[in-house]
Amino acid sequence: MEITTDILIIGSGIAGLSLAIKASELGTVAVVTKKEKFESNTNYAQGGIAAVHDQQDSYESHIRDTLICGAGLSHPEVVEFVVKEGPARIEELVRWGVEFTRAEIEVGHTYDLGREGGHSHRRVLHAGDLTGREIERALTEKVSRMKTVHVYENFVAIDLILSSSLKDQQGTQRPRCLGAYVYDYHQNVVHTFRARFVVLASGGCGKVYLVTTNPDIATGDGIAMAYRAGALIANMEFIQFHPTCLYHPEAKSFLISEAVRGEGGVLRLKSGETFMERYHPMKSLAPRDVVAKAIDRELKRSGDDYVLLDITHRDRDFLSSRFPNIYRKCLEFGIDIAVDPIPVVPAAHYLCGGVMVNHFGETTIDGLFACGEVACTGLHGANRLASNSLLEAVVFAHRTFLRIAEMFPKVPEPDMTIRPWDNRGATESDESIVVSHNWDEIRRCMWHYVGIVRSDKRLERAKRRIDLIGREIEEYYRNFVVTRDLLELRNIAIVAKLIIACAMTRKESRGLHYNLDYPEADDQNWLRDTVISRSPSSGSPHPERS
Ligand code: FAD
Ligand code: SIN
After folding, report:
1. Residue 128 Cα to ligand 2 middle (Å)
2. Residue 351 pairs with which residues in a beta bridge?
């Protein structure tokens, strides 16, 4: 079936939904989302959303903390406008019904402000430790009341549709994005969505790694689609590993928020000894890259499987009211956090790079925008400051809306003929074991060779394996009818390839990228983004000069 809409948004996390709410005033909006509409990284956000609220705090301080964390690669002008526009976007969330936890007594600010690693002030608005769930609740409720927004659940976008026949003033071919092919996996049918504007709001790619805090939806689909379409992609080597994911055989991807350390939680070895003082003056509240690297090193040195996060000095009433979800979840696994230190390990958490966009969410393909975790905006640089990503998502969703609103009267509906999805010749696979085996192999390979600590040899090993698996998957993709698992596998293989390509390009260590063969930062050569695109001749990633 062909579905025509003014604006197609791929993803229903904070970026997609907040944009849909605004864009609804321009025309018809279709939001496609690959599971139920609330299922997203957003839904699991715990710590909160950073913005200056306290009279003791200042924009300068939030800007400084963000720049320090970004290790020289954050774009200062982006940091400045995101920080300064943050409070207005948060007021908007409140108007839309998000209930942040309020301060017990108002002392220069209305909300209870949490503290997280790398922040020199308390500035994180939160809803207990279920901030993301509260945001998704309010946004999905709001969207469901909007007549011009249609949400298509259990629809997986497969690929973008491009026209390559438009020419710019220099006469060069400039493709325009005309929509996307989207797979409705309940009905087992692929639809053609035709749109004047297409927005990727499809989130990150934690599932590329074996151990991750991310839910199953995070397979980097938007990045893979944009890459296949020829968009510029940047900074994929900067994968943020969160230092404290619960270590328990039955706990899948459960995060222990950095806010626990913000409230005094201390990291210890299994022996009870503290160790962070040997790595950073901010000790357990040092920036994430420092803490994750320190834990990795201590675990490799001791051979232990986990370290401990100890918050037992705070009383039970405080812990159960400030961290109700963590408190309850840990109890389910037999850990009483008021008495027992929590076993934790680092886990892949956030992608600082992604589809390159300008200050208004425009990618390098006309008609194609990106906002939220899928985009590389210049805010995070080589490392993201805690709770800055929900902030980035709302600020860039707003700016994307402004640009679409400005262009809206000038961009006509695409009237070209779009070929419907063609799966002639494809047959049902009788060997889905190939898909599950390759999933597992990619995630293990990335965890072991392209994790917190890298080396040239490990990266080369990973490249050889991922290239081989990638070829096998492409062949499989051509021959068999699509399934959701196969589409996601194809995407994680591409995202893995892009992470490796960027990591091999950057011959230094900076922020989240640590390579044993180049242990120092090299400001002379590498104070710049790593920008890559798909080579039209070989189909492989090749570096662009940034
Ligand atoms: P998401 O919220 O991930 O939404 C992506 C959407 O795209 C989903 O609806 C998904 O189904 C859909 N999608 C993906 N691919 C397709 C496809 N092919 N077709 C159709 N739909 C598709 N950040 C903070 O700032 N503060 C925090 O406290 C915080 N805590 C976090 C805790 C956890 C456990 C995790 C995992 C992340 C946390 N983060 C936090 C990061 C933050 O939650 C994310 O960066 C942010 O929510 C991303 O929002 P988004 O809208 O870009 O993407
Ligand atoms: C956390 O609560 O520790 C996650 C915060 C973030 O990723 O920004």
Report:
1. 13
2. 239
Kind of pairing between the strands at 307-310 and 541-544: unpaired
Q: Of 413, 380, 425, 416, which Cα lies nearest the Cα of 529?
A: 380
User: What is the pTM (predicted TM-score) of this model?
Assistant: 0.96
d(CA 204, CA 384): 13
244 CB within 6 A, ligand 1? no
Using the mean position of ligand 1's atoms as its centre, give its distance from the Cα of residue 13 in Å: 6
- Cβ burial of 249 (10 Å; 0-12, 13-18, 19+) is exposed
- Cα 512 to middle of ligand 2, angstroms: 16
> Which residue among 194, 288, 399, 510 is the active-site one?
288
User: 432-528 is classed in which CATH architecture?
Assistant: Up-down Bundle (1.20)
What are the pLDDT tens digits along the chain (546 aa)? 899 999 999 999 999 999 999 999 999 999 999 999 999 999 999 999 999 999 899 999 999 999 999 999 999 999 999 999 999 999 999 999 999 999 987 666 789 999 888 899 999 999 999 999 999 999 999 999 999 999 999 999 999 999 874 555 565 667 899 999 999 999 999 999 999 999 999 999 999 999 999 999 999 999 999 999 999 999 999 999 999 999 998 888 899 999 999 999 999 999 999 999 999 999 999 888 899 999 999 998 999 999 999 999 999 999 999 999 999 999 999 999 999 999 999 999 999 999 999 999 999 999 999 999 999 999 999 999 999 999 999 999 999 999 999 999 998 887 778 888 887 777 777 777 888 899 999 999 999 999 999 999 999 999 999 999 999 999 888 888 899 999 999 999 999 999 999 999 999 999 999 999 999 999 999 999 999 999 888 888 988 865
Residue 140 Cα to ligand 2 midpoint, Å, equals 22
Fold (topology level) of 1-49+128-238+352-414: FAD/NAD(P)-binding domain (3.50.50)
List helix spans (H) across 150-271: 221-229, 258-262
* Topology alike, domains 243-346 and 432-528: no
- For ligand 1, atom 40, which residue shows the shortest CA distance? 45
- Using most ligand atoms within 8 A of CB, pick from 115, 213, 241, 255 the residue to mutate for ligand 2: 255
Answer whether 217 contacts ligand 1 (Cβ < 6 A).
yes
- Residues within 6 Å of ligand 2 by CB: 46-47, 257-259, 350, 386-387, 389
Ligand at minimal distance from the CA of 158 is 1
What does the alpha-carbon distance between residue 546 and residue 402 come to, in Å, rounded to a whole number? 26
Q: Please report, for the chain, the start and end positions of each structural domain, with discontinuous segments joined by +.
A: 1-49+128-238+352-414, 243-346, 432-528
Residue 290, class by beta-carbon neighbours within 10 Å (0-12 exposed, 13-18 middle, 19+ buried)? middle
288 is known as an active-site residue: yes
**In CATH terms, is domain 243-346 a member of 3.40.50.1820?**
no
The length of the chain is 546
Alpha-carbon distance 29 to 19, whole Å?
10
| 293 CA distance to ligand 2 middle (Å) | 17
Q: Which atom of ligand 1 is nearest to the CA of 259?
A: 28
The beta strand positions in 365-441, using DSSP E, are 368-370, 375-376
Query: Quick check: CB of 158 below 6 Å from ligand 1?
Result: no
Per-residue tokens: 140: 């999905």
